[in-house]
Design goal:
The chain is 75% helix and 0% strand.
Length: 123
């Protein structure tokens, strides 16, 4: 992570009310992960500045907003790969990825194997 970004996060003061709003943002992401979620939209949704939102996510989860959304989507995809026989394209769609190719690329980057290989190893 860029050192300037880390400095900005450390210098952002978060109150207990801000942290409750961060938790609301996390709940929102977990319920709406299949939708496109932007920092602008989410900050409006929970009533928190983008800066505090990003800092709070980094503090609570250790990820940027985009990375946290990606992790939630990957978690759902892993569940579907293990518990269903759905095709990879259907799992990509159900997990909120824009297309199968992008899903496979992100999955392999994070798990070092393809979704199909993951499914086979979990069986």
């Amino acid at each position: 992570m860029h050192s300037l970004y880390r400095t900005e996060i450390r210098s952002t003061r978060l109150s207990s009310a801000d942290l409750r709003l961060i938790d609301q943002a996390l709940d929102y992401i977990n319920k709406h992960y299949t939708e496109k979620i932007s920092a602008d939209q989410l900050s409006i949704e929970v009533g928190l500045s983008k800066e505090k939102l990003q800092a709070g996510l980094q503090i609570r989860k250790g990820f940027t907003l985009a990375k946290y959304i990606q992790q939630v989507r990957l978690e759902k995809a892993r569940e579907l790969l293990i518990n269903t026989n759905d095709p990879v394209k259907a799992i990509a769609d159900a997990s909120g990825f824009t297309n199968e190719s992008h899903f496979c690329k992100v999955f392999k980057k994070n798990h070092f194997i393809s979704p199909i290989q993951y499914r086979m190893h979990q069986a």
